[in-house]
Design goal:
The protein is an alpha/beta fold and 285 residues long. Helix content is 38%, strand content 19%. The chain contains eleven helices and nine strands. A six-stranded parallel β-sheet has the order 1-4-3-2-5-6, with helices on both faces. Strand 2, helix 2 and strand 3 form a beta-alpha-beta unit. Helix 6 crosses helix 7 and helix 9 packs antiparallel against helix 10. The longest helix is centred in the middle third of the chain and has 16 residues. The mean pLDDT is 97. The chain binds adenosine monophosphate. Adenosine monophosphate (AMP) binds next to helix 2 and strand 5.
């Protein structure tokens, strides 16, 4: 595996590649990230992984400085999988400090919902860096995890709206045995809190099983209360149209519950699919 830190060297190495599979990450790699790499390898021969902790997506009081960085271990994991290139630029390479009035890409409305409601610059930071990375790597396909459901829908919309011409492949959430979604931020939790964190998914599973068109508000309210009782500070727990990210309407074909909650100040997100057939049935039938 080639480890490349500059855009120029990366582009020299990619010049002769016709098909490039691309997996953007912020590093501290776990089984969720590696599942994206494995998926990419089933599609194409040449895989590029990027590791870049994107400061544009962190708000002033968020955890940019303490975000886990484990490059040496990450390299070993990617080498073991036979990745072709690791692109790991520093911040100055991606966002030169002499750059003034950086161009931002912002998708209105959907970027203000769910995670965007409490993280106002989050999706604009992501969209801006993703477009930069796409223009640098020029991949055929990009691989994203369903763990960040809102992010994946927003990036699909971005590519469609701007005719980016790169296919987006999404892959299912990889979980620990406890049910907790694998996340780099799980490393910030001690063993006891990790056990507690798994209750987020338990709560989502139970809500997804019981939620119906005529009880959804009550089910979400109860899930929220239950998470509060279990020590979480809940940011949101919302039932949405999985494809638009808006509220469910009569046109909705797929449903999802998205949630974000803090445990010991560590932000956890998760989501789960809801069967539309079950949702449309009346309670007790
Ligand atoms: P991150 O490093 O957190 O920016 O994530 C990089 C990519 O890995 C994103 O597309 C995430 O959705 C994906 N990802 C993170 N955690 C998981 C997981 N537990 N299962 C599947 N994909 C994941």
């Amino acid at each position: 595996m080639k480890i490349i830190k500059t855009i120029k060297e990366l582009q020299q190495n990619l010049k002769t590649q016709e098909l490039v599979e691309f997996i953007p990450t912020m590093g501290n790699l776990h089984s969720g990230h590696l599942s994206l790499v494995k998926k990419a390898q089933t599609f194409g021969k040449y895989t590029v992984v990027s590791i870049f902790v994107n400061n544009l997506q962190f708000g002033p009081n968020e955890d940019l400085n303490t975000y886990p960085r484990t490059l040496v271990e990450d390299i070993k994991k990617l080498e073991a999988l036979g990745v072709d290139i690791l692109f790991c630029p520093n911040t100055d390479e991606m966002l030169p400090t002499n750059q003034v009035d950086l161009t931002f890409i912002k998708i209105p409305k959907v970027s203000e919902l769910h995670c965007g409601a409490s993280r106002p610059i989050f999706f604009q930071g992501i969209c801006t860096i993703i477009i930069k990375l796409i223009n640098i790597v020029k991949p055929t396909r990009i691989y994203l995890g369903e763990k960040d459901w809102q992010q994946s829908i927003i990036i699909k919309k971005l590519f469609q709206d701007l005719n980016v011409g790169v296919e987006v492949i999404t892959t299912p959430i990889v979980r620990e045995e406890s049910g907790l979604a694998c996340s780099s931020r799980n490393n910030k939790l001690d063993n006891q809190t990790l056990e507690q964190a798994a209750l987020l998914y338990e709560e989502l599973e139970s809500a997804a099983k019981n939620i119906k068109h005529n009880n959804w508000k009550e089910i979400l309210e109860n899930a929220k209360k239950s998470l509060l009782d279990k020590g979480f500070k809940v940011d949101y727990i919302n039932l949405i149209d999985a494809n638009t990210l808006y509220e469910v309407t009569s046109d909705t074909k797929e449903l999802r519950i998205l949630a974000a909650a803090y445990l010991n100040k560590v932000r956890l997100i998760d989501n789960i699919s809801v069967s539309i057939g079950d949702y449309l049935q009346d309670e007790g039938t």
